[in-house]
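User: Run a structure prediction on this.
Assistant: Running it now.
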Amino acid sequence: MTHTLTKKITLPIISFIIFLLLWKCVIWIGHYQPILLPGPLLVAKSIWHFIISGEIFTHLGISLFRFFIGFIIAIIIGVPVGFLLGRSNTLFDAIEPLLQLIRPISPIAWSPFVVLWFGIGSLPAMAIIFIAAFFPIVFNTIKGIRNVEPQYLKIAANLNVTGWQLYKHILFPGAFKHIMGGIHMAVGTSWIFLVSGEMIGAQSGLGFLIVDARNMLNLEDVLSAIFFIGLFGFMIDRFISYLEKLILKRFGE
């Protein structure tokens, strides 16, 4: 147990050190000035400044608020839609081609309409997060429902299990892993597009922080913001994984 824990801690540290060395090598080989590519030390100082000043927590709080509102709405709408399409062949045949047509369109492509409809501020970013998260959740939910073991449905029919009880005891547990797969996928895509959305119509948040630092030619601040975006995206993904494990324990898996 101790050896495994040590390995899990040591390997990421080694990888991080190698990454920093490669970063420095790129600067040395390319003879890049800090105005073009800041070094690790400059970026570390910028990260420390953001933490000490508290500025990063202000932008982070705003970004997380936008993210969770858009993401939760996508779950609230996407999972039931996936259940409906997964259970009804008629609805699936009628609506699935339209969803497949819309799905490949980048959420940012909708940004002109989003800004016109919702103005500037938090709402456009929330709308883009919703679009980015909706399709992975819907299609993975459909896949999960359609992959529920047929014998479970036959047993439920024989026992006259219908309505909410069928969803609670058969369909949701059977589709849960696929639903969580869609949520994991949606976390990554929607977090990416949160930053893009904040670059378009917001005056605060992590995406705005990148734009503002770029306009001021403070590339060390740009890389610091990128670091925080990656860090908090990683933490959100781990949080979702933790919730998944808790729910799987509830199902006895």
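The mean pLDDT is 84.
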